[in-house]
Design a protein that fits this description.
This protein is of the alpha/beta class and 250 residues long. It has ten helices and five strands. Helix 9 links the parallel strand 4 and strand 5. The radius of gyration is 29 Å and the shape is globular.
């Protein structure tokens, strides 16, 4: 009788040990399979970093061409300088739109705000401009940067310029919607708002609200203001942009 009881207890103990081992192995398996947490794209902390990933060298040829032009025909000092991305670079009627002003175009097509800051020693400081009009930020957003980061880039641009040219006025031209990047409008508005708020607290810095120049009365894109890529202004688009900018020149 005792043998049977011992056998039953042995069997029960063996079963209990086997169950514990199974649970232990299952827990370890779950821990081994657990994946690290990943933040969804677009949330703070996961935006595209500038730093080492930003390739300034892609603009070297364009910057060198500007320097060669400056050597052949030096621009006047204390003029009105326009810098930024393709909206500036492709503004071919700039001199005709603002007669009586010494305007200089040093736009870099496809660039971001950090590019104008990086190349300031070569395309800003040599001219000692009395005014700088900056139009950039759209490519920054399109390339994955967030409005708060881009606003910080603008602040860095202002600091660098005013450290060397403390009396120069800096005017930021708001980014405006384009049909080909229509889904980025919310970020454009946020960026414009942030830079406006910064400008209010910065001496000799202001903004031109040009956000709505590409919209009709119902808030939809005016396709007639763009060339075939639906991103860049045509002559009529630049006419409207010039009307917004003109009151700020002096």
């Amino acid at each position: 009788m005792k043998t049977v009881v011992c056998g039953s207890r042995s069997l029960w103990l063996a079963a209990a040990i086997a169950c514990c081992l199974t649970l232990f192995q299952a827990e370890n398996f779950c821990q081994a399979q657990e994946l690290p947490a990943v933040n969804p794209p677009g949330l703070p902390g996961v935006a595209k970093p500038v730093g080492s990933e930003h390739n300034f060298s892609v603009w070297e040829k364009e910057i060198a061409a500007y320097e060669a032009a400056d050597q052949a025909n030096p621009p006047p000092k204390e003029g009105v300088l326009f810098v930024g991305s393709s909206t500036i670079r492709l503004w071919k009627s700039l001199a005709q739109d603002f007669p009586g002003h010494k305007v200089i175009n040093r736009g870099i097509g496809g660039s971001e705000i950090v590019d104008s800051t990086h190349f300031a020693e070569r395309i800003i400081f040599p001219y000692e401009p009395k005014q700088i009009f900056l139009r950039a930020g759209g490519n920054d957003i399109h390339n994955g940067r967030l409005p708060d980061e881009i606003a910080d880039d603008f602040a860095a641009f202002v600091r660098k310029v005013h450290a060397r040219l403390p009396r120069t006025e800096i005017i930021y031209i708001f980014v405006s919607p384009a049909p080909s990047r229509w889904g980025e409008n919310d970020k454009y508005r946020d960026l414009n708002r942030r830079i406006r708020e910064m400008a209010l607290r910065m001496p000799r810095v202001c903004c031109i609200d040009a956000y709505d120049i590409s919209l009709d009365s119902s808030g939809q894109a005016r396709h007639d203001l763009f060339v075939s890529d639906k991103l860049h202004f045509n002559a009529e688009g630049y006419k409207l942009l010039a009307e917004r900018v003109r009151p700020y020149l002096h």
